[in-house]
Specification:
362 residues, alpha+beta, 2 domains, seven-stranded mixed beta barrel, three-stranded antiparallel β-sheet, 9 helices, globular
Length: 362
């Protein structure tokens, strides 16, 4: 199955002018190399061959790397391969009782890659695998594409059709969706930023515009599984010359818009399901401060809906459910009373708006 997504905006990285022309060209060349894997929205075909059973069993304690052969189809239709190392990763999705296939980390650091190869400039890449059904991976991928519309400060992703070939048993799985996620260090390089890794960081340290765009986006998709304080499913970056931090979200499988059967909100939030939305920003009593963010989401409404409408990869039932879920969001932000009740919830001392989600220990 090969489809061109063809529904998304292309984000162009704008590199500031430099006094040193040669330095600027070097930066451009490096960025192009690092982003080659993610510059297309075409589905990428990958098959991992090796002792798959042994790899999937490695779910407890500190995982070790396993040597596997990665076969992939290039843009010209030819097949190429690389011998790489792969290990399991994650917390919730790594546990056997939660997911059939654990998330994986692809390591290219010992591979001799040609300068024009698709993986040139890559070191380690996270691979999101199907937990229960690969349709939920596709839904999560689309959420990354939604956030790319909202902010250029976002992770790049590539949808893949993934198979596993067990060299011991001689069995090969059917193709399933997966997601390749841009490495955080390459993300920082691309955005000419530094990763901020200090824990217990107050949300107010974020640039307010960037924070409100991110947190209203989390409300849009129905995701409460994140926190600034513990950098749970959030990367923080600092760009030189910017007064404050920029939050970049990832890992959306517990979002209501994905609606995975295993997803449940944290008990501390006292919510019935992940389909129930809960705004989790800090208290801002003046609703006028939200208006530029609401204006942005209204401006992007057509583009956001287009990610779901007439998408050949999605089930018709899910498209209708998603559009209804999005409609509810837009009804809220465009109704002053509903918006005030929703987005001033963290100001309620008796609510759960200020509960901090720690996440699982890494």
């Amino acid at each position: 199955m090969k489809f061109a997504i063809g529904l998304f905006l292309i984000l162009i990285l704008q590199i500031p002018l430099s006094a040193q022309e040669s330095d600027m060209q070097t930066l451009i060349d490096t960025t192009c190399i690092q982003n080659a894997l993610f510059e297309s929205d075409e589905i990428f075909n990958i098959c991992l061959r090796g002792d798959i059973r042994e790899l999937f069993k490695d779910r407890r304690g500190e995982p070790r790397y396993h040597p596997l052969l990665m076969k992939y189809i290039m843009a010209n239709g030819e097949t190429d391969s690389l011998n790489i190392r792969i290990k399991t990763r994650g917390n919730f999705r790594r546990k056997r009782e939660n997911c059939k296939i654990p998330p994986l980390l692809l390591n290219f650091d010992s591979v001799q890659i040609q300068s024009n190869d698709l993986f040139s400039g890559q070191d380690k890449i996270k691979l999101v695998t199907p937990c229960i059904d690969h349709k939920y991976v596709l839904r999560e991928y689309l959420i990354y594409k939604v956030f790319q519309l909202i902010s250029k400060n976002s992770f790049q992703v590539r949808l893949v059709e993934l198979c596993f070939e067990d060299s011991i048993k001689g069995k090969k799985t059917e193709d399933q969706y997966g997601i390749l996620l841009e490495d955080q260090n390459l993300l920082a390089d691309r955005l000419q930023a530094q990763l901020f890794k200090r824990a217990n960081t107050r949300p107010q340290r974020n640039i307010k515009k960037e924070f409100l765009n991110m947190v209203v986006f989390q409300y849009l998709i129905g995701n409460t599984d994140w926190s600034i304080q513990y950098r749970h499913n959030i990367k923080l970056i600092h760009i030189k010359g910017k007064n404050g931090l920029i939050p970049i979200p990832y890992d959306f499988d517990h979002a209501g818009l994905v609606n995975a059967p295993y997803a449940k909100p944290a008990k501390e939030l006292r919510m019935n399901s992940v389909r129930q939305r809960r705004y989790r920003g800090y208290c801002i009593e003046d609703m006028r401060e939200f208006q530029p963010t609401f204006d942005l989401f209204n401006k992007l409404k057509k583009a956001i809906y287009a990610i779901y409408t007439d998408n050949p990869l999605l089930e018709e039932k899910y498209i209708k459910q998603s559009l209804k879920y999005l409609d509810e969001f837009y009804q809220t932000i465009n109704n002053p009373k509903m918006a005030a009740k929703t987005f001033q919830y963290p100001c309620n001392p008796h609510g759960t708006g200020n509960v901090v989600i720690k996440g699982l220990k890494k």
